[in-house]
Amino acid sequence: MAVARSTAAGTQFLDPAVLGRIANLELLARTVVDGFLTGLHRSPYLGFSMDFAEHRPYMPGDDIRRIDWRLFARTDRHYIKLFEADTNANFSVLLDLSASMSYGSHSLAKIDYARYLAACLIYFSNKQRDRVGLVTFDHEIVDYVPPSMKHLDTILHRLDQAKAGRPGTLAGPLLKITEMLGRKGILVVISDFYEEPDTVLSAIAPLRARGHDVIVFHVMDPFELDFPFEEASGFEDLETGEQIPVIPGKLRGDYTSLMKTHLDTLQKRFTENQIDYTLLNTGEPLDMALFQYLLARERMSKAR
Amino acid sequence: MSLAFLVPLFLAGIAGIIVPIVVHLTRRQRKNVVHFPSLMFLQKIPYQEQRRRRIQHWFLLSLRALALVLVAAAFARPFFERSTIGALGSGGPREVVVLVDRSYSMEIGDKMERARQEAERIFRGLGPLDRASLVAFSQGADVAARSTSDLSRLQGAVDTLSVSSAATRFGPALKVAQTILEESNLPTGEVYLLTDFQRNGWTGDEGVRLPAGSRVISVPLGSTDPVDNVMVTDVSLPRQIVSNRERVTPTARIVRRGGDEPLEVTVTLELDGQEIQSRTETLAPNSAAAVTFQPFTLSRPHTRGTVRVPEDDLSTDNTHHFVLSPGNALPVLIVEAARAPSDVSLYLRGALSISDDGRFEVRTRRSGTIRPVDLEGVGAVFLNNVLIDGGSAERLRAFVENGGGVFVALGQGAGWPASAADLLPGTIGQMEDRLQGRGGRLGFLDYEHPIFEVFAGPRSGDFTGARFYRAWRMEPADSAAILARYDDGSVALAELRHGRGRVLAWTSSLDAFWNDLALQPVFLPYVHRLAEYLGGRAEAVPWFVTGQVVDLADPDALETAGLVSSEAAGLAEGLDQVAVLPTGGTVSMPAGDGPRYLPLDEHGFYTVRRPGTDPDRPFVMAVNADLEESDLATIDPEELVLQIEASAATTDGTPGLGDAVELRREDQERRQSVWRWLLIVALALFITETAISNWLSRRRAGATGGAAG
User: Fold this and answer.
1) Residues near B85 by Cβ (< 8 Å), separated by ≥ 6?
2) Do A262 and B41 count as a contact with CB atoms less than 8 A apart?
3) What is this structure's pTM?
4) What tens digit of pLDDT does each residue of B156-166 get?
């Protein structure tokens, strides 16, 4: 199970708690992405490949890591590489707005974390000149912004307004999305996946079968993962309203075991269906999510 | 008729049962609610606690709650309260006192069993508002149950009735009945007298005065069958010193009352529990006999003896117990003048020397000077016609103040130092002769004084035969006691106490010159009594009679009881004691400053020892029954009832019967005893609930196992 970890220097400001203070989602996205990318540039690990577009002469101030030394060997002159993003790719975020996403044990609820992630990914993709789109859903499609180069602001605005509160399912909305999205593209599904793995796969696999590149971000709160509750309480389901009395101390072992089994099963099933799966802990910084996204983009680009 | 509770506070327990159920039912949500994204995984965990707690078996809950409610109600002691009862019939509620005779004559035949049955019959006939008391009496009266309507308590008291070793006395029992009736607020009083109506139990001057309107009902329990009773009435125990050993020759007096034919009776003598001799005597009807046993050597202290005849209808008087200890001689010092004739104390010494048990050890000092060594170990000093010096007088003063006794016989040569004049009971005047007629006589003797009390009875000793020709005139001191006077009123014998001892002054001589008392038969016992009184010795009694009380903290009482040594018996001050009764019970007597009374109510031997010890020769007291009870002559029951009722208080003319009396709440509750039924029903509910619950659990377990399979 992939666990988000902060590894790159200069990414401290991606602490979700800090991000929560940035009220403007666009600003947040820009801050995160640009900062992430800047950090990446400073890191010795470049590791991300982008399609080479053209050369231009080196000018003082350019990043010397971009100098094409093969061309220098041939020409004895310094030229830097200019990369190009995947241009014209359709990039859509499918964001789960079911009531369970409203849970948060600390300052940042899952839905907020998911919104920030979605905003960052869309901003990043838009910067890569992808056509970006957004679909929000719970038990039905809530909002749909078709992919376009010009929809960034609209998408960020819709993300800003997105609220989680109604019961949700994956099958119905994702089936519709599968029918709605005609052109192949990159689909990022952000959800907490509180359904049986078979149900989840049966909802998402058709997207892959249609030819989309699917990246799944499984957003979980630390308390959902560790179940650190102590006091005997009534536990109420945020989606169904059902309540049961729970003595946490007696159940913790079984709960975490079931959770692990669920996560492992999802990992395995998604992998089997060539779907990138990443588990995200809302207590951890966002950069890991972006890191995983970029890795996934690279794998996709190599596969073509 | 309304439901009431004797202890309503216990009803608060019902709230304690209901409250948690109500809270559980009304509380839909826990105060602590965690809004969790999904119960998907929690619901998969197979624990019942995860299921919402709902009451599934209302019937079981109802059974449990009802059972607990019944228990709480039972503790609250419910009863159906009746309103004030109106005036009843002519009798009204009764205060009933049942007096049951438990003297030892009640052991004849089935008298005591019939007494119990009669008492039970009387109690069964009590009305709902009546109250009854049970009083068992013999010489005293014991209230076994007082003024109650609780039949079970009265029955329990009847079950404790048993025959005692004491004689019959109606007075104390009737006085207890009088007290109970006087304190009662019920209008009618009844006294049931269950006894064999022995004449000896009633003297007529008991001073009983029952409240006005009281009735006395006699329940004669005497037997019409003739009684043939043989009893041991007395045992004489004369002692002799033979070859320096003390030997006792017991003689028992056997009496037979009743019978038709001569009866052969075997009389046995036991010492320390072992039969050592037996004699057979033939007794004619209504006759008596004296049975003398062979002498036995008395060598050990507190020897227990019993004279026994075979058991008959009245067995209590078939045994007579006694306790004997070897005697100790009392050292007596006779002081004579150095130049007095050698026979000056002939009669005195002779009288002291003559005794069956060597009770006196006589020493003689022929000098007017008494040395300290002369007084060592001496109990009594006889100054026989001697002039002593001042120093000797002071030594005698110290001797007397420490408990010794001095007898001063004032003869021709007697004298007393002026420095010690206060020691004598009076001032010695002139000698006086009584030569007219045949001399003077003793005209007055204080028979209440210990010296003379043994002579009080007829044919116990005659002093009037003695002639006195010369005597000293004595002017008695204010604090002196005059024990004897001559017929002219002058003092013959006077006593003055000093400290713990005493001084007796005899104004004549102890020889045959000034008087001839020494020649009279009474002289010997008189001298013996003088010596014993001066020496402070009390004669031990071989036995006590039931009803007597001994103070084990009183040294004189212990000496009378024959105690040989306080230290040996553990009766030294500050030590706890325990008395073992003839029937085996014990009475604890912890050490203390006050008296330690031991009532002697049982016939047999009382042993006194320290707790936890088993001495070889413990201090023992023998107690015999009062043989007055063996006289079975009866008084007419109706005559006794008339005498009792005649002395009852008279009424003031105001009719007091028929007033309404409200049965006490406690009495009503006790009669109904609703609490028993509540507990029985509660128990049945608990059993039913347990059975149903177990059946449901088994069924649920079976269903779960089937599903899992």
Assistant:
1) B129, B660, B661, B662, B663
2) yes
3) 0.53
4) 999 999 999 99
